[in-house]
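Database export, one record per block. Field names are fixed; values are copied verbatim from the stored entry.
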Amino acid sequence: MNGWQRLLEEIDAILERDPAARSRWEVALCYPGFHALLLHRLAHRLWQGGWRLLARWLSSVNRFLTGIEIHPGAKIGRRVFIDHGMGVVIGETAEIGDDCTIYQGVTLGGTSLFRGTKRHPTLERGVVVGAGAKVLGGFTVGEGARIGSNAVVLKPVPPGATAVGNPARVIPPESSGPEGREVARAQKAAAIGFTAYGVTRDLDDPLVKALHAMLDHMVESDRRFERLIADLQAAGVIPKSESKGEETPFDPQVVSRWME
């Protein structure tokens, strides 16, 4: 694939994932994420060629022009889409696979201060990182995984899973709900593992889901106890209580609404 075809491939990838993009010319002229990647690829070549200071200077120019800071040592694959992009920071040892999507305010940072080590994360193919998320450390985010907006990820994320919260909790892939989009874009999104901002309207925090499961179990236990007592009273094993009482019944739906 020559340089021109590669350029068109990058532009078409943005058109497929951003419903606001209307033409190739609009993407080429108006998308800072596209411009940032073009400048980064040049800076990365200078970095690999040993022109370290010039590469860092070019990355600083890139940040000034686009608001996106990418260290020239970072490795970025094909068809990567940085949407909006303002405030994105990508560290020196970060690796971003093909077809990844990164939104504004994302940090792919490190927690180690030792040079020569893998300090920044690796995003495998098709990862989506939502706005404001922080992925910190030299671990791997698996293929097709999604990082929810404002999540703080400090450990590996399995392929296809979704990480939400601070610190991030991982939702297995079978728990993630479908994204409600038009059919044509949804089919393409499924093919490349794309979900806007890393979350869906049906997504729920795993802690809340666990609490809901506990509430459901409590309600079922109460129902079984009541049935058992009624059967024992009907059989004459225990006398029926003469006290009416005014105990307020427990409503799990009220507690569920508290956690929404």
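Remark 1: Residues 206-234 form the longest helix (29 residues).
Remark 2: The first strand starts at residue 69 and ends at 70.
End of record.
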